[in-house]
Amino acid sequence: MPAPRFRSLAALVAAFALALVALTVVEGAPADASRGFTARGSAHQVYAVGVRPGAGVSLLDAHGDVVKRQEANSLGGVLFRHVKPGQGYRVRSGGHTSGPLTVHGTRPHQWNKSIYQQSMPEEGYGYLTTRDGTKLAYSVHPPTSPAGIGGTTIPVPAGVSYTPPYPTLIEYSGYGYADPSGPTNGIAAIANVMGFAVVDIQMRGTGCSGGAFDFFEPLQSLDGYDIVETVARQPWVKGGKVGMMGISYGGISQLFTAQTRPPHLAAISPLSVIDATATTLYPGGNLNTGFAVAWAKERQQEAQPAGTGAEGTQPYAEQRIQDGDTTCKDNQVLHGEAASLMRKIKANSHYRPKVADPLDPVSFVHRIGVPTFLACQFQDEQTGGHCPSLVRHFTGTKKKWFTFTNGAHVDSLDPETLNRLYDFLMLYVADQAPSTNAAALRAAAPVIYREALGTPPEDPITLPADPVQEQPTYDGALAEFESADPVRVLFDNGAGTGPTQSNQPGDPYPAYEHSFRSIPVPATKAVSWYLGGGSALHAQAPGRNVDRYRSDPRVLPGTDFDGGTGTGGLWGNASQWSWDWKQRKAGTAVSYVSAPLPKDLTTVGAGAVQLWVRSSTRDVDFQATVSEVRDGHETFVQSGWMRGSERKLATDRHNIMKQQPSLLEPIPTFRAEDVRPMPSDRYTKVVVPLYFQAHAYRAGSRIRVTISAPGGEQPIWSFAHARPVRGAATVHVLSSRTHPSRLVLPVVPGLNIDSPAPPCPSLRNEPCRDYVPFTNR
User: Fold this and answer.
1) Which of 50, 100, 130, 256 has an alpha carbon 20 to 30 Å from 290's alpha carbon atom?
2) Which strand (E) or helix (H) includes residue 613?
3) Pairing state between β 729-736 and 589-593
4) Using an 8 Å Cβ cutoff, are 77 and 48 in contact?
5) Average pLDDT value for residue range 160-174
6) Cβ–Cβ contacts within 10 Å for residue 738, how many?
7) pLDDT range class, residue 632, cuts 50, 70, 90
8) How far separated are the first and last CA of the chain, in Å rounded?
9) Average pLDDT over residues 649-659
């Protein structure tokens, strides 16, 4: 095992103390290892290691009755899940029985506070022991020795010096974050440039961390609580408190951890996150077999035991085991007990509150009480564009700021957003004026964006001026920051002008912005355009119009997780539009275009497409896509999906989104008992919820909506199980005064559009193509 890097004798002593603490902090009365195995109690779980591989293992209650039976895995580990909290449990195998064990509930209240005595080095690799004895791998990157980004190390700028104690951030995920050679993304390096120490820590059951993996089970949140409270107590951490930061997986984990309310958590900054699992995994009730399923398969594969020949495990764990890291090797014993994510996905194709709600941030972010900075993108090709629905649910804190824009998954790190993120972390975690390290961040920005976005050296991306950073004092900067409205929307991202005014179309600069108190924006109007004759959208419902199309999901199946349009290819400038937004062929869709708009119109929020339809098959999936037509071009704006048999809408707050449904935000129930086949002898109403958008339609533009089978309108997302599974459905779309099929958009009156129409292409992750008129059948 390679020796970790220690910066001082004190750090070496601290590491020795950590080893001693790890031997004493584990709760429970484990069986003596000489008798065959060690058993521990956890939160609704009991685990044992050192069991003979393949041996039968029984879990006994306080009365000696068998409550569960399992076989030990090939490494001699066994995990009993869903165990009722209580005392006196024992584990029996091969004639040996453990001492009494306590099984705890999932309340954050700590049952083993002695773990907070652990010491961690201010730099280097190590293991943190949680309340149930599980050891989590971590890597500490102080600002004096920054982490790398894309293989490039960003040096500490000349004239800048950092001394402990450091303001500290935690990045917590199931990716290879603890890799000593550098985490899987560059967030840690960016934070180091800002002057923060970063603790990259690996979720249980992944990489070199112990335990068994499951997707955001309560125990992962309790681990997050323990991580915060342990790191915050380190002598090299400034102020005895820590913040959290991260993007995607590392952003979602912050929401789960913060809801447990660790006392020493200062603030969180989640980027590019989900609002509910259904909106990414089952859009409209249709399984996303592209990114979502591929991501789950990858997480499940990476959670398998390293060092055993299993394919797809995390490379850094394999390397550490080869180099003699016995802790990493021992931590693999329970990896084989990882939950089957694919089995869980199949078992939960419909909304089951007891299963879904604990996994859906929209159900629990009201419990978050610390300052929060959150950023998401409307066209995010990974987590999807439904994140803004979280805004109204963040009721537990008054210090909350949200930034939304058009763009890809990585655009939560665009210059305007990165500026605001930096200000937030400096004010609420570092307790310093952002002017302190702003120059260092600005100097590093071109390197950051060259690595993150693939921009060429001749097109450097730099940070714009920031009024908060111009304030020399902490109080002045705080007042300036807190004067901003909570919701900030950046419009026409990709069509703006950077500080040097030499940028190219597609560079991550917005053309202008607006701020609001909330989403939905006050005074928003639900404006309707009606599907009618002549393949047109009308201001009024037509007398009667019927169009038909052949719904075949195999016509444009979409792109998969790594099918040539992988995430890296979407993040560059020209390459983000290369996923080839294809035209629909005649007869495979119906499409309607409005007359030229007489004046500017801005939409902010969610929307819907209400359809009166009749299908030749018992089930059919719908995809609705909104686009803008102007100057012979068509620009993608947003899509939505809905399965015909899942069409029943919720009528109250007892639904997956925990909010009152509305004309602009219809909410399907997604309950199995509400599934109904599509009637073939009459028209029935199907409402397709649109994901959120913020788009500026200039005067003279036309709005288009296209209804088709799912696929082809979102990079990486695919729907291999879309209905009909075989063949095609003939779908008739009726629109009349009594059956008004219509597009409903969230129009915010009175908003200025402060820039000319963007060139084609330029808007980030909003592809632009030649406009081809479409004649409905």
Assistant:
1) 256
2) strand 601-615
3) unpaired
4) yes
5) 94
6) 8
7) very high
8) 70
9) 84
Rounded Cα–Cα distance for residues 487 and 152 (Å): 34
Strands 265-271 and 242-247: parallel
Answer for the pair 359, 280: CB distance below 8 angstroms, yes or no.
no
Q: Which amino acid is at 772?
A: V
Q: For the sheet with 38-41, list strands across it.
A: 38-41, 46-49, 78-80
Local structure of 212: helix, strand or coil: coil
Q: CA torsion sign, 488 to 492 to 494 to 497?
A: negative
Record the tokens describing residue 106, joined without a space. 């999932």
| Concatenated DSSP letters of 300-346 | HHHTSPTTTT-TT--HHHHHHHHTT-HHHHHTTTTGGG---HHHHHH
- DSSP strand pairing (148-149 vs 86-93): unpaired
Asked whether 21 and 90 are in contact (CB, 8 A), the reply is: no
Q: What is the pLDDT of residues 179-212, one digit of tens each?
A: 988 777 789 999 999 999 999 999 999 999 999 9
The residue ranges of every structural domain in the chain are 27-103, 525-744
Q: Between 457 and 629, whose confidence is greater?
A: 629
Burial 307-319 (b: 16+ CB within 10 A, else e): beebeebbebbbb
Q: Are 248 and 412 in contact (CB under 8 A)?
A: no
Mean pLDDT calculated for residue range 103-130: 95
- DSSP H helices, 373-473, are 415-425, 438-453
- Tell me: pLDDT of 332 over 70: yes
CATH number of 525-744: 2.60.120.260
Residue with tokens 């209580």: 86
pLDDT band, very low/low/confident/very high, at 503 (cuts 50, 70, 90): confident
Cα–chain center distance at 327: 30
Q: Residue 249: its pLDDT value, please?
A: 96
- Sole residue written with tokens 């305007």: 416
Is the distance from CB of 271 to CB of 185 less than 8 angstroms?
A: no
Q: How far is CA 332 from CA 77, 81, 213, 302, 745, in A?
A: 9, 18, 11, 12, 51
Question: Who contacts 63 (Cβ-Cβ below 8 Å, separation ≥6)?
Answer: none
3-class secondary-structure state, position 646: helix
Tokens representing 749 are 């009156």
For 585-600, letters b (16+ CB in 10 Å) and e give eeebbbbbbbeebeee
C-beta of residue 76 within 8 angstroms of C-beta of residue 51: yes
**Max Cα–Cα distance, the chain, nearest Å:** 85
Q: Is the dihedral of CA 330, 331, 332, 335 positive or negative?
A: positive
Does domain 27-103 bear CATH number 2.60.40.3080? yes
